[in-house]
Amino acid sequence: MNRRRFLELGAMAVLAGIFPQTASGSNGIITQPERWLAFYNTHTAERLKSVYWIEGNYIPESLGEIDHILRDHRTNEVLNIDTRLLDLLFVLRNELDTNQPFHIISGYRSAPTNAFLHARSDGVAENSLHTVGKAIDIRTPGRALSVLHRAAIALKAGGVGYYPKSDFVHVDVGRVRYW
To answer: Which of 50, 68, 78, 121 has the fewest CB atoms nearer than 10 Å to its CB?
Structure first.
């Protein structure tokens, strides 16, 4: 076994630990030769569909495009989004059995933007994972918000917040918790 194959197997084992088994009974992330995501930014009306991983390798250009669409739309500041969050979204998309884009309510938030929002809402954490590229607020066309919420919880891969009045679900790659 060469070093590359050893590392690929190690990565698959890590992902299997993060996503031990999806609700449908399989671990879709391991069996896919490529991973892609589609987004629609509700604030800028930008759209993106991008293959960000092929056969064990993240694609830097694609990650840059995703970082850009998930930027802080208030300041235009871009941050590298944690690839674990992208992989979580990939698995979530597969669980939802949809090719529809995730509608982005909030991706990355700069510290000033987060402080501004925190001062105006109890629903915005002072030390939000949005500020480090590990959280996203989304909805998915064609899927009830409650279905998206249940699918995210079933993954047991991070935090999941349910905001039906604001029409979005928060997912992050922090510790497993629900609200």
So the answer is: 121
Examine the pLDDT at 170 and tell me if it is beyond 90. Answer: yes
Q: How far apart are CA 172 and CA 82, in angstroms?
A: 10
Q: Which residues pair with 117 in a beta bridge?
A: none
Domains and CATH numbers, the chain: 3-178 (3.30.1380.10)
Contact criterion met (CB below 8 Å) for 85 and 173 = yes
How far apart CA 113 and CA 99 sit, in angstroms, is: 31
34 pLDDT exceeds 80?
yes
Asked if 103 and 141 touch (Cβ cutoff 8 Å), the reply is yes
Q: Are 1 and 137 in contact (CB under 8 A)?
A: no
In angstroms, the Cα distances linking 128 to 4, 69, 123 are 36, 19, 10
According to DSSP, the β-strands at 135-139 and 102-106 are: antiparallel
